[in-house]
Write a structure and sequence with these properties.
It is built from four helices and four strands; from the N terminus they run ααββααββ. By secondary structure, the protein is an alpha+beta fold. A hairpin with a 6-residue loop joins strand 3 and strand 4. Helix 2 crosses helix 3.
């Protein structure tokens, strides 16, 4: 094999690698603006702001409405204080409404929060679950023709 054919193989391989890198960057750039990326970004913002252990976000139809569901797990001891739990879930709902993507935020009818408090440790863990539902303050009503 001559040095000319080695150079041809090396240059072709280098160009293929460069092409793959550019294609991957373009694909990642388009994934950045998907609804799934918006939900992941929202879950990460909620987790870092409130210092929760894990957070999940989902947007979809529930009971005929478009709902943003934020569920989180915390080890903070609420001492069974329901008003404290409700205050925390209300703050999470307000924060999630404010932080969700601007374009899609107005399409959500309500925000539902699921709070899971993990108590104790080891084999004797107990999970206390609480729910909170709030209307979306950023919702823009649909314009309907008169008579509907």
């Amino acid at each position: 094999m001559g040095s000319k054919s080695l150079w041809t193989i090396a240059v072709t391989g280098f160009l293929a690698v460069v092409f793959l890198i550019v294609a991957m960057l373009l694909a990642l750039g388009s994934l950045e603006q998907t609804p799934a990326a918006n939900r992941i970004r929202l879950a990460e913002r909620v987790r870092s702001h409130f210092k929760f252990e894990s957070v999940g976000a989902h947007v979809g139809p529930m009971d005929g409405r478009t709902v943003l569901l934020v569920s989180y797990e915390t080890t903070r001891d609420s001492k069974y204080n329901v008003s404290e739990q409700n205050r925390e879930m209300r703050e999470v709902a307000e924060f999630a409404a404010a932080q969700y993507d601007d374009k899609d935020r107005r399409l959500i009818d309500e925000i539902r929060v699921k709070r899971v408090e993990v108590r104790s440790g080891g084999c004797w863990q107990r999970r206390l679950v609480a729910y909170h539902t709030a209307p979306n303050p950023h919702r823009t009503p649909l314009l309907r023709p008169e008579g509907y």
